[in-house]
Sequence to fold (119 residues):
Amino acid sequence: QVQLVESGGGLVQAGESLRLSCAASGSIFGILGMGWYRQAPGRQRELVARITRGGSTLYADSVKGRFNISRDNAKDTVYLQMNSLKPEDTAVYYCNADGDRSLGYLTYWGQGTQVTVSS
Fold:
């Protein structure tokens, strides 16, 4: 129904920046909000940032002031601009989309993209 494809991960040094992209395709009219989660080795997947269809945003405390989530509705793409990266930001980052359950939509995940921050 909905496909998500992430890009933009990589290896950077502490203090540098990266921008992740998540392109959505398929029947996207039923998507209510999109976001980014991350999972480090041995840890649970955690929310990084979310943005609603109306543009409201939510950030994890650990990334406030450093990360910015945005969306380009014309391109059906969500971005995560990550600045002042720290080694503890190292994780696999997953794009997420929440669908409208009343329309039969589910929760969708991308395949993940690795972000590695060296000290």
Summary: The chain is about 0% helix and 55% strand. The CA atoms of residues 21 and 79 lie 5 Å apart.
